[in-house]
Amino acid sequence: MIKLQIVGNLGADCIQKEVNGKNVINFNVAHSEKYKDAQGNPVEKTTWVNCAYWTDKNAVAQYLLKGKTIYAEGIPEADAYTNKDGAAAATLRMRVLNLQLLGGNTDGQSGQQQPGGYSNSNAGNVTNSGNTPPPVVRTPQPAADMPLDDDLPF
Is the dihedral of CA 5, 6, 7, 11 positive or negative? Predict the structure, then answer.
């Protein structure tokens, strides 16, 4: 399986639809990258990813608003087409399997974010069953005084 991971900002509020009796939340994520070209000129490149999150729970949709920062991972798909100018172009899409809200407050209230993680790895079942996102699970770091096992084969 090929997996795509992206951290970016939502370009617009999400759109909820029902397709063949199943719920889907569609949203666009922009990831901007700034760097300098060979001549030293600043360049900003933005990549857009059209996302489809198939789920039976729509509680997360209320948090998927324009400007919010998210982490999403899923299965990428690319479509080639000819644009209105007759040039070849491509669209990057992703079927979202996991989604985490990172922030990007747009309502002017700093510090009022609702972080949460959603998983869609089991045939569209979201791990959240309430109206608010679950808390972010952090992996504990090993204590500084714990001995390291140097006998690992790698």
Answer: negative
